[in-house]
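Data availability (excerpt). The following record was deposited with the supplementary files.
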Amino acid sequence: MTDTVADLIRARVGDDSPAIAFENSTWTYRQYVQASVQRAALIAQLRTEHPRERGTGFHIGVLADNIPEFPMWLGAAALAGATVVGINPTRRGAELERDIAHTSCDLIVTEKAHLPLLAGLDLPVAAGMVLDVDSPSYLELLAPHAAASLDEVDVHPGKDDLFLLIFTSGTSAAPKAVICSQGRLAMIGPIVAQMFGLTADDVCYEAMPMFHSNALMACWCPAIAAGATFAMRRKFSASGFLADVRAYGATYFNYVGKTLSYVLATPELPDDADNTLVRGFGNEGSRVDLEDFSRRFACTITDAYGSTEGGAVVSATDDTPPGALGPAGAGNIVLDPATGDECPRARFDEAGRLVNADEAIGEMVSKFGGAMFEGYWDNDEANRERLRDGMYWTGDLAYVDEAGFIYFAGRSYDWLRVDGENFAAAPVERILSRYESVTLAAVYAVPDALVGDQVMAALELKPGTGFDPEDFSAFLAKQTDLGTKWSPRYVRISQRLPVTESNKVLKRSLRSEFWECTDPVWWRPKKDGPYRLLSDGDTAAIRAEFVGRGREAVLDAS
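Predicted structure:
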């Protein structure tokens, strides 16, 4: 019986089949388990030398790309009953410092490439508790534990032991750390492995960042449960995807929305279907991309709706209509967050456009999701926001058609998801407010023609000032705490932003107009390129791209 992740790892003792493949190196399960045991013994040593002052437990922040040390420390933490905090390397400065402090990290495991990110930060960890896995001193620390046995570090962690703290973002200004116990992950891994028939003969390709739940829940843990090979790439590369699949002999991969879009944007070749892929699993893929990817690479793609918190799940069925997530089922409903009443069913015109968005769109709520949601770390307010009236409120917008199929309609207006990264608008707004001529800044999500969101900012400027696109770009480049996904794609310049009586910006009004408004809008046609004034021709071309990708519904629904 596998109640814990530790049980899944113990089950691989003595297994000489391949466990990890990375670049030109391979580790068997026997070697992987021993590497995990070795690091678990080091955890025990460091716990003794640096007793925790902030209650029980031991929190290990892992700030690294997808390198073998990441799954090795996951295995070590599972065996030692410790907690891994996935630290996002796209965060910077005070925001990164806050993430580490908020999750009470006792130890930070990083690599040479990311070590500079920690320079100058006021970290809560004790001296000597930042380990650079590329340094000789790290190897010296590990060396005494090379022959450690599983019995020496076996602390019998319980299924409810805190195993992961995974950052996500809600409507608050700072990211929230989702709690995931060993028991929850040990349940998810085998279920996913069984869903896709994974066995020891499979090779599971991982290019999604391992500080994300998608990587851990949809690939790493299922691979461990099945005894499959976990093939890693340091960072996702669209141009390297197919070459990796062929080199590793990958049969399965996981993704977050835009991954498919980026791969499909590479030049199509006649032999693309000549590969080992059998199936892929992920979320937020557009209907067009799912179909094109399956055709081009001759594999089956399963797209589902789920959250790191585990509060709500929707899976597509064979009869799911285009654009829908799947049947709402008995557990998922759409409620008006203001009244708590169920929203009316969606109606569509002859062209398939939603005609009653104002009344049909509400918040997706799971009647039973509270049973899986284990809470946020040190955030009672966020816990209360998620669990209300005995139900789990996702924070995502949706609508349901007459046949009972549920459609995703965007996200709460105070948070965004860009390239698979969740983040709150408030930190971005604080940064933009530093710009000398800005009186008021509002940041919100607008749809991306591929999948997910783009960042749009509406700025109210001080009287007598104007918008200088080159100066604004230079300002953004100097902000050390501006996340790599946070720069606005669109900048709307308004004489006065719409506000409520309490002077809160009406983001719903701004978002509903997108870039198709009477105010001047500056935009970056290419990421990190120069801003230029949006023309009528640009606006028409953007909408045409949505239509071409079958995504016009997200414009009409907003």
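Summary of structural features: Residues 168 and 176 are 5 Å apart (CA to CA).
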